[in-house]
Amino acid sequence: MTPPTRSSRLEALGAFLPPTVLSTPDLVARATGVPELDLQGITGVAERRVYDARPEAQEDSFGLALKAARDCLEKSRYDAADLDVIINASITRFKDGSDFCFEPSFAGQLAAELGARSAIHFDISNACAGMMTGVYLLDRMVRAGIVRTGMVVSGEQNTRVAETAAAEITDSYDPQFASLSVGDAAVAVIVDESQDEADRIHYVDLMTCSEYSHLCLGMPSDRTEGIALYTDNKQMHKRDRLRLWPTFHGDLLAKHGRTFADEGFDYIVQHQVGTRFVEYVNAMGAAEFDAPMPQSLSVVEEFGNTSSNSHFLVLREHLRAGTALQGRKYLLVPAASGVVTGALSATISNLGV
Asked: Is the pLDDT of residue 295 over 80?
């Protein structure tokens, strides 16, 4: 007898944004080595949220993730004790000040704080595709019948690399330039089994092109004690790199005898690198698929590049504002250091936000 086919869905989505806002002009004023830098004109980022360094604010990576996880549970029909698995996808793992925490796992510590005592837990690391990778794994677990429900969570204290960049860069071609576009945020999403095709993750798949892994690297600064992000923007945004998504997605659809136009997406969410990047990738997709792109959703102007959180922060903000609607079909396209690309297709009809 053939076992029943299972599918997953996005059940609840939570987030936390630090209340402190830093405008782009105020950040540029700190970059004394490049006084004429037109950061907003180049990136489209007008402002971003930044962490409060006071210990009582609890806005390091762990504190941000915990706040988002609690917000997600408030939107969910599940309690923490109901979760079978918790996956942490944070790139930055700052806890208790400047400590970068590898062990014990963030996921295990989050499970303990939330009261998810029976949940299995583990951390993953896949750069800005981290949340998408967590959903990929959780989707497969639900489909296999290994778990019933779980949470993927990420807290990103990104602006520490912006602090380093502001102190060190000397021109707009500096490899730390992209660091000035980041913002701090946390998101958490609960995934469970879908009972309705109108509320379902249709597919999620990823591809890594490791030959480009050297183009974006996070590490201790080679000049100061700060943490830094070094990106070769010119090479990262070359045409062959921008073609990775439509090539991979087109091949994925072709295996099932479908085209991009057949998918009938209502909305598309690209990684929030900057407004120009979103425009370029959508234009590349339209050309490669020979099909118009769905309505593009973005929040990069207001929150900057929130790295692993970006796609789900876009979903949360637009669904809450009513500028994106439940009952519609969404496409989320990752773009991460590695280089990672892929596609997540989902109809979202009952997502608690």
From this structure: yes
